[in-house]
Each structure stands twice: as structure tokens, then as C-alpha cells.
Specification:
Blueprint (H helix, E strand, L loop, with lengths): L7 E6 L2 H17 L4 E5 L2 H4 L4 E2 L11 H6 L1 H17 L4 E5 L2 H13 L4 E4 L11 H8 L2 E4 L2 H9 L4 E3 L3 H5 L6 H8 L7 E5 L4 H21 L4 E6 L2 H13 L7 E4 L2 H7 L2 E4 L3 H8 L4 E5 L3 H10 L7 H6 L6 E3 L5 H13 L1 H18 L3 H15 L2
Parallel strand pairs: 1-2, 1-4, 2-3, 4-5, 5-6, 6-7, 8-9, 8-11, 9-10, 11-12, 12-13
Helix pairs in contact: 1-18, 4-5, 9-12, 10-11, 10-16
Length: 385
């Protein structure tokens, strides 16, 4: 369906991942509404698609409690400015992409004013603080989820929802060219590779970096031929990891790569990593993985009481069974992590079974997310005419 309606579509994205989702969504919505105008907050990717950003997106990209508190007045000011703009020149729909602490409040105010609201990327309400579902139900006319188990949760609570799939599943090929990735990184194509990803933030690297390096050293004692590669998201993380490597009592040969984390995972035989989106990427690349994570004892005990799901790794959540080992808190020792990696490195039959399971999950998420999201939003818009 192509419509000549002169729509105004408001989109609010606060992080780089949301900017990418927003750009794809704008492309797909413009196919349906060539005369549409897109306005709100977005980054370079969205601006390149003709989006008008009222505020630079980086003003919303705040991580950590201390940083948020330090910027709280500015964030409230931005929210007030957006609402004032939307109320004076009402858009046909408001779409918040992720960043729920900021976007859901705006979506609710707009919905109360009669402006249809959509939220793209579900908060982890299915995992913890489940009572947030009642706030979400009052804030959105439609929730767009990346994973099918999220959609089932919203359906159970009578919140309008559409499962659209994950854009990464659309962009990552079904088969991974491991040899080409190794050649690109200058690695020996005939020796096994362990990709080590202790996280992208300084705090995570501080907690997990030495642990993962000690696990790698344990593994190297058992497999001297292993090549260790660590991708670092930026120069600061590279310096931080280099400092951790140099602080080890026994020298550990390791290759540091700035950026290119997906390429590093593609080159690997096994991935040792923290929980998070990286576990999804490793799954889509069909790589065996070992998930390790540690928090402060207080934080871990608190989260253990709040979290309502049996796993933290996305492959396990998607499969609703344990496909990859999760070694958390006291279970995350160098020996246990190293042994788990070694087992996956040497179990060829297990690797083949895992590849098959990961391929099935990849197919389930490969839904052409941009188009499905645009279609669901279009249905909402047409139902409100």
C-alpha cells in the first residue's frame, strides 16, 4: 500500500542502536508514505534519511546513575521541549525507540493527548520488575518486540503487540566465512581461535577482564596452539585491556583489535563473553560460546531475587532451554570458564548440533524487521483515520 497522506511521524531515539533501527524504519515507512515528514530526536543514520532532529541525540546518550543524576535537569528540559512541540503541532504518531526511562513518559503524555504512541524494542519487563507492564499498557497503543517470547508476555497482559524480528538477524548471513575473517585479521587460518569479549564499558572490563584473561591462560596451558583475540570498542578500552594483560604475572600472547568485534567473533572457534547483545551476535554467527559474568555480591543477591527468568543469555532465552553454559558469580572461576571453552573447542559433534539449533533460531528472527515494523505502524495509522 502506498498512500499520499502528508503524515508527520515523531521518532525519539537516544542511542546508536536506536539510530540504526530508526533509519531502517524511516526507509520502510517512506515507501508507504512518500510525503511523510519525520521529526524528533535521532542520530546521523536517521538524519541521512531526511529526519529532522530537534536535539542532538548524544544529549540523551547517558550511561550510569551518577551521569544521569548530573544531567537530570537537562533531560527534563529536553522532555518538556519535545512535549511542547508535539502538543503545539501534533504528529500522527509518536514512536519511542528503546531508552524506555526517557521515551515511555513521553509516549504516555502523547497518548493521553490523543496522539497514537508506539514503543520499539521492549524493556526487559518480562525478566524483572514485571509490574512495569501496567505503566507500559497506559503508555503505548502498540509495542514492537524483537523476540517472540517478549510478544507472548505482552499478549498475556493484553497489551497490543507485534513481533517484528531482529534487524541483526536480517543483516548477518546464515553462513559465516570463518577463513575470510581470519585472513582479514591476519590470524593463522589453521590454528584455533578464541574470541574474548569482557564487555564494552569500563566497569565491565574492570570486573571481567582479568577473570577472562586468567581463563584464557588456563586454556592456553591445555591448548598451546590457541590464538587469543580481544576486540576493544575504542581506544580507552584498548588501553584498559592492555594494562590488564601487562599486569598478569605470566605473559599471555593476545591480539588486541580496535572495533571489529563481529569480525573477531566470525574468525573464532569459540567465544568467551559477558551476557548481553554480544551473545545474540555470536549465536547468529553460529559460534559456540561460554557466558561468564560477575557483579558485586550485593547487586547479585538483589538481582537474583528480582529476575524472573532462569537464564541470562539470549540463545537460552530464545530456545527456552540451556544451549550455552552460563557461569555466573561464584561459578565464574578461571578454571571453570577455561574448561567450558575447552569442552566446546574439542566436541565436534556438539558444535554441529549447536550450529543446527542456532540456525533455526536465526531463521525465526529473520523476519525483515524494518518492513514488519513499518507495516504494523501503518496498520495502526490507518485504523485511526
Amino acid at each position: 500500500m502506498v498512500s499520499d497522506r502528508k503524515l508527520t511521524v515523531a521518532i525519539i531515539a537516544g542511542e546508536a542502536s536506536g539510530d540504526i533501527l530508526g533509519a531502517g524504519l524511516i526507509q520502510s515507512l517512506r515507501k508507504r508514505y512518500p510525503n511523510a515528514r519525520f521529526v524528533g530526536i535521532g542520530g546521523d543514520e536517521m538524519v541521512a534519511e531526511g529526519f529532522h532532529s530537534l536535539v542532538p541525540m548524544e544529549r540523551l546518550s547517558v550511561m550510569g546513575l551518577v551521569e544521569v543524576v548530573g544531567r537530570i535537569r537537562e533531560l527534563f528540559s529536553i522532555r518538556a521541549r519535545l512535549l511542547d512541540f508535539f502538543f503545539k503541532t501534533p504528529p500522527d504518531v509518536v514512536i519511542g525507540i528503546d531508552s524506555p526511562d526517557f521515551t515511555l513518559a513521553i509516549e504516555r503524555r502523547c497518548r493521553e493527548a490523543g496522539i497514537p504512541s508506539v514503543h520499539y524494542v521492549s524493556p526487559s519487563v518480562w525478566a524483572w520488575r514485571q509490574k512495569r507492564i501496567f505503566k507500559i499498557a497506559k503508555s503505548v497503543d502498540l509495542m514492537l518486540t524483537l523476540f517472540p517470547f517478549e510478544a507472548r508476555f505482552y499478549e498475556e497482559h493484553q497489551v497490543p503487540v507485534a513481533f517484528v524480528g531482529h534487524p541483526l538477524a536480517d543483516r548477518i548471513a546464515m553462513k559465516t566465512d570463518t577463513r575470510a575473517a581470519r585472513e582479514s585479521l591476519g590470524l593463522d587460518v589453521d590454528k584455533p581461535v578464541l574470541a574474548v569479549l569482557p564487555g564494552s564499558r569500563g566497569g565491565e572490563v574492570e570486573r571481567l577482564g582479568t577473570l577472562f584473561l586468567e581463563a584464557s591462560r588456563w586454556l592456553q596451558c591445555h591448548r598451546p596452539d590457541i590464538q587469543l583475540v580481544i576486540p576493544c570498542v575504542n581506544r580507552d578500552r584498548e588501553r584498559q585491556v592492555q594494562g590488564l594483560v601487562e599486569s598478569l604475572e605470566v605473559k599471555l600472547p593476545v591480539t588486541l583489535v580496535r572495533g571489529r568485534s563481529r569480525e573477531v567473533m566470525a574468525a573464532s572457534d569459540v567465544v568467551l563473553l559477558a551476557s548481553g547483545t554480544a551473545t545474540l551476535e555470536a549465536m547468529l554467527l553460529k559460534k559456540p560460546m561460554v557466558v561468564g559474568y560477575r557483579l558485586s555480591n550485593f547487586s547479585f543477591k538483589l538481582l537474583s531475587k528480582l529476575v524472573k527468568v532462569p537464564w541470562v543469555a539470549l540463545p537460552n532465552l530464545l530456545a527456552q532451554k540451556q544451549l550455552v553454559p552460563e557461569l555466573l558469580q561464584d561459578d565464574a572461576t578461571p578454571e571453570a570458564l577455561g574448561a567450558a571453552v575447552l569442552e566446546r573447542l574439542e566436541d565436534e559433534q556438539g558444535r554441529l548440533r549447536l550450529n543446527e539449533a542456532f540456525s533455526e533460531l536465526h531463521e525465526s528472527l529473520r523476519q525483515n524487521a524494518d518492513e514488519r515494523a513499518a507495516s504494523a505502524i501503518s496498520d495502526l495509522l490507518e485504523s485511526r483515520r
